[in-house]
Amino acid sequence: MIPPAEGGARRRTYLTAQVLVRVVLALVTYTVFVGTGALASDGVVVQQGTAQAVDCDRVGPISRSGLGWYWSCDAEITWADGSTGRSSFQASDLTPQSRTEPAPVVRKEVRNRGDMVDVDKQRPLAGLGWALYIPLLGTTLAGFRVPGVPRRSAHQRVRDRERRLQWWQPLALPIGWGLVFAGGFATADQAFRGWSVFTIVLGYAALVAGWFIWVNRRRDQQPAPPQPSPEQLTTVSTWGRRLCWVGGVLALVGLVAGVSSWPGVIGLLAVPVCVVVVGTRMVVVARRHASKLQNIA
Q1: How much is the pLDDT for 206?
Q2: What is the pTM of this model?
């Protein structure tokens, strides 16, 4: 039993870590959303012009641009109709070079948010920013346990190792994040918009499943998996190898499909790679369970 004083210290350590985790995750979410240009991709263009920087400052490590170091510039804008204005640009959209080389800008009308002025350039990663927004926001609200903070008891660590011998459950969150990243990245290729949306939705489903598994584990309501019989181990190992073959063949088909863009290749390979990963884990876990049976015998 943990003494009251020690239990209070552990709780304070845990709460402090969770506050810091949520602050960092909030900053990461904001940085991804701004850095990928997701916000700038919204709206309808109503005016075009050029912006010439008049004053630039280096900002960071935390600023309106998010985490990191960026240029923040004030600029004079000359619109196509001859009118002028002034605006501030973040996230290195303008740099000191823009003092001599004006950048094209647009004014956009954004539903429910008035209008905004933005540099007129391609935002190929905007889809990635929108895809990551929901899971990053959810992770910020839910938080996650920092390994070793506070340190778990020997009994808890043994139980954690036993619970890791599950067939697919520990892979739900990693696979979910991987699919969301791949699907969001694939939105840069117009030819794969439909497949990328499917990949993102599949990733969301895996993240939801992983979240429920994580909640049960955090509440210590997830029991250690029962020891399967030798026949069950053989069956699982066989199906794991089949999944590896299926995923490998699908990945090979994706590679020889003649896709010329890296976003398209990543989007096509995401699901087959996940199939291979699940199959590999089934084989590995089956071998570990078989090793346990031999040790017991």
Answers
A1: 93
A2: 0.81
